[in-house]
Structures are given as structure tokens and as C-alpha cells.
Amino acid sequence: MNAHQLEVFEAIMRTGSVSEAARTLDVSQPAVSKTLRLAEEAAGFVLFRRVRGRLYPSPEAETLLPQVEQLRNEMNAISLLIQRLRDGHAGHVTVASAASLAHAFLTPAIAQFSRANQDIRIEVQMLPTHQVAERVAHSHADFGLVHEPTDNPYIDGENICQAEAVCFMPRDHPLASRRSVGPRDLQAQPLLCYRDDTAIGRLVRKALADAGQRREIDMVVNQSEQALDLVEAGCGLAISEPFLHVARPRASIVGVPFRPAIPLRLRIIRARERPRSRAAAQLERVVRAVIAKTTRRSPFLIKDIQR
């Protein structure tokens, strides 16, 4: 039995007659009678028996009806879901991000997005940059947020804004009033930085070596928030990206540009061959708006480079 035959069968079961079923379905009575005959042929058994001009459902028809009603409800649900997906009001969005960018921009963006899209499920994966790129490239995330270069032929990246690495220190530190600091200024300072397999960590170590300083990093961290916590606790100075501090400034800490400059580009990355869902595209627009609003208030030279 096809969908139309099941629809006619259910209408006859609800109304009790061919004529009423035809009126309900807005078709002719002969059309309903023909469809009922074809439905019984397809089923291989009698669906209704006519007794004194009335139709009585067979036991097989009564057994079949709950399943037909369930199928109709499921089809209605599918139609509603299709409409909501088309309008971008349903679905599932996965975002992979460097931890600092998730804290700085994804949290407020998701809070704003979720208030208007409560039926869209969102998953956030905070990972190192190379893992963000891998998740996006393998379509395990709809898009990603990174601030370091990604060398992956299966992803496309779009630059949103750029900044430079900053040296964070307590507000009352002797170097806090400087316009910039370099390797020689930091020679006698306890220094915190990222691992040497990150772009910032690698370039900081290169800057120190080029300045003739053969020193080790005193504390190695893997997240910006951890670096700022340690600076605030008086453990040393940290060379880090500025995005988290821009979004969530700490009154006891200041940032001074580090020289030689270490450029950072905040980028949205996507899998080259993966089409975007409407829900993912909507969330991405909210993320962009949050980034634009937040970085406009920045005391650092963060430049909008979307164009």
C-alpha cells in the first residue's frame, strides 16, 4: 500500500463511510472507492465489509490502523522538521575552537544564539589549533576558530581580524608603562610562554635566540587563561595572544606589545568540500558580530581584515 492508499484507508476508518472520507479528502467518491479497491489488492486482504449499506472494518484493518496513525504522525513530524531546517530553526552545530577564542567569543555568541534558537543543539570542542584543523577537515565540526596558521589542504580559512602577541604583566610592574618590550627587557624576568610546537611559542624562542639570549622559558603553559592566572598570581610575565584579555580584561594585569612583532590572525576555518547547514551559517554570523563588537573596544591594535 502506498502513502495515498494509506491516507484513504485512515480517512474511511475515521469517518465510517466512503462518502464522508471523500468529503474530508476533498476528492470524488468514485476516486475513494477506486483507491480502496487498489489498497485491498495491494494488502492482499479485505479491509472493510459492507453490511446493509454500512462499512465495517475487518480485524486486519483494526490491527493496521494504529500503525497507519503512527506513520502519519511521523510524516507530519518530518514535514515540520524539514520546514524548521529550511528556516534554520532546528539542527545540530559543532564548533571546534582554540580554548581562548572559545572563552572570548564563542561563549557570548552561543548565549545570544541559543536564546533565539532553543531547538538547535550546539557542541563546542576546545582543542589545540592542529586538532581544530583536523576536526574541521574531517567534517567532525561545522567550522573552527583559530589564531595560528593551519597547514591543511582540506580546509579553507577566512581572516576575521588580526593582532600581535602581547607581554602580560602586573599593573604595577616596572615595565608596565613601556610602549613595547623586547627580549633584552625580559632578560631578568620570570617568563611564561606556550610550548615550542605552537606558533607563538616557537617565535618567542626564536626572538630570544636572535637577541643572543640562551635562556629557557621558566613556565610552559598550553592555554591563555592559565598564563593570565599565573601572571595575576605573581609568577612572572607571559607572552600570549591578546584576544582573551580583550574580551575578559583583568584589572590587575596590563599588556605591552612584544617586539619583534608576532602577528596573529583570528580565522574561521571550514572543510573545503562540506556544505554549511543553515543553522551553522546563522551561528557563524553571530560569532562574527560578537568578534567585531568585542575587538572594537580593544586597547590593542586589532585590525578588522574581513575584506
Automatic annotation (TrEMBL):
Q: Which InterPro entries match?
A: LysR_HTH_N (IPR000847), LysR_subst-bd (IPR005119), WH-like_DNA-bd_sf (IPR036388), WH_DNA-bd_sf (IPR036390)
Span of domain HTH lysR-type: 1-58
Q: Does the keyword DNA-binding apply?
A: yes
Q: Does the keyword DNA-binding apply?
A: yes
State a single Pfam family of this protein: LysR_substrate
Annotated family = Belongs to the LysR transcriptional regulatory family.
Q: Which SUPFAM superfamilies does the record cross-reference, listed alphabetically?
A: Periplasmic binding protein-like II, Winged helix' DNA-binding domain
**Name under which the protein is recorded:** LysR family transcriptional regulator
Cite a single GO BP annotation: positive regulation of gene expression
Recite the UniProt keywords alphabetically: DNA-binding, Transcription, Transcription regulation
Molecular function per GO: DNA-binding transcription factor activity; sequence-specific DNA binding
